[in-house]
Each structure stands twice: as structure tokens, then as C-alpha cells.
Specification:
Blueprint (H helix, E strand, L loop, with lengths): L22 H17 L3 E3 L9 E4 L7 E11 L3 E6 L9 E6 L1 E7 L5 E7 H14 L10 H16 L3
This protein binds zinc ion.
Zinc ion (ZN) binds next to helix 2.
Amino acid sequence: MQIITLGDELLKQKAEKIEKIDDEIANIARQMLGILKLEKGVGVAGPQVGIMKRIFVTHIENDEERVYINPSILETAHNTVKYEEGCLSVPGIYANVTRPESIKIQAWNEKGRPFTLEAGGLLARVILHEYDHLEGVLFLDHVPEKKREKLVEKYEKAKGVKP
Ligand code: ZN
């Protein structure tokens, strides 16, 4: 399992519903949590590791590791907050993104158990960011076009000088 980065067409595609939560899916979830730890990230979604299925995982400080399969965002707060985001698929690039300050989500875990979660703060942000990946949307897509072009240019420049 490897993180794919900006420019890969898979990041722009919609992920497919998971029909059955079996050992294979549980294994994918475990591997995704492993890669999250390795990369010191707070969330990773299936498409970021080339798996076009509706699954993502989160692990933020002071919270447990969480797996979300076939998630639905049930509610989003009217109040929004602006905060700097990054993405394992766009290393080195950070930008302010405005998102609802709290959400309610329903999903299944890797054991096939359904759950509903109300989240605020960083967890809400990470969930919305990862959910976007399932829709083929990157955090940069929330950034005004001019600013986005500059960031992509910066990213490509930085990538170009790497050996
Ligand atoms: Zn991301």
C-alpha cells in the first residue's frame, strides 16, 4: 500500500460502495491505519492508496483509531470555521479551507457494525476532508482558483527538484 499523489487521475474519481464488510475489507482498514501511523497523518481515504472503495480512517490526537465504511454525512453545522489543511497526497502544501464546525456522520466499522458519530473541531474537519476524497474532491478544490494555481505550481516546483 502506497500513497498516491496529486496528478494521479484516481484522486479525481468517485469511490464505489462496499458491498460486503469481510476480512478483506478489515485487512484494508488495518493497512490504512498502519500507513497513517507511518506517515504521521490524521486521516487517509481509500482512493489515496489506490483503493476506489468508500472507506477512510482517522486517528487524531486524544482520539481512538476510527474506520468509516460507506459513510453518510447526516448533518453539518451552519457555522463554519477556516483552518489550515494539508493532505498526504499533496505533501508540503497547506491552505486555509472553510468547513462546517461540526457534523453528524453514519457509517460502518471494519467489524460490520453501524455507528453514528457527532464530531466537532479537528475530527469534524478530518472526516469532511476524507469524505471528500471518496467523491474525488481534494482540499485544494475548496481553495479559490488563483490561489490554487499558485499552490499547484509551488507543489510541482518542489517535486521537480527532488532526486
Ligand atoms: Zn487528503
